[in-house]
Amino acid sequence: MASSSNNFDEEGIEKKEEPTPLEKHVMFFDINKDGVIYPWETYKGFRKIGSGVLLSTVASIFINIGLSGKTRPGKWPSPLFPIEVKNIKFAKHSSDSDIYDTEGRFVPEKFEELFNKHGRTNDNALTGEELDELLKANKQPKDFAGHIAAKSEWKILYLLCKDENGMLPKETIRSVYDGSLFEQMAKEKQSKKHRGKSSS
């Protein structure tokens, strides 16, 4: 069957589709950029953004075991628990904020709604208590797995990114959804490392 002409540019070269925001969100952990994320890559990614050994280990096991099968529809389970980036939309869990739609696209209205509903202390940040309220509000009945996944994601984000007043800034949360936060955190960690070496 002939490919659609929409998939090619004016010179007849096949165009690559732009990754969705959800794909960008996880691509940071694809260390060798082959489209597949293994547990050791997830571990390295967490270490790059400043997570300790224990959190990085637990997160890599939990995330890859939880998402691998969902991103590999029709395939046999793999003991290496790979996550296929192009299929990450299939791993979208329930009891979440729906800021990503079913295709992994960012929904600005849902993002603003989150702060309109829960950002009472500050319009541009969430406190730890407000985060708990958000998780409780999004929890669907009898959805233990989805709630645990959502809680883990938000709690890790809060632990790593809260400011000195215990607030999770709106811009930080926004950068999670557009996929830029992890690169930014890795650069900051690297910069601190260099500053530490130069001052010693």
From TrEMBL:
InterPro entries: Caleosin-related, EF-hand-dom_pair. This is Peroxygenase 5. Belongs to the caleosin family. GO terms for molecular function: calcium ion binding; monooxygenase activity. It comes from the Eukaryota. It holds the Pfam family Caleosin.
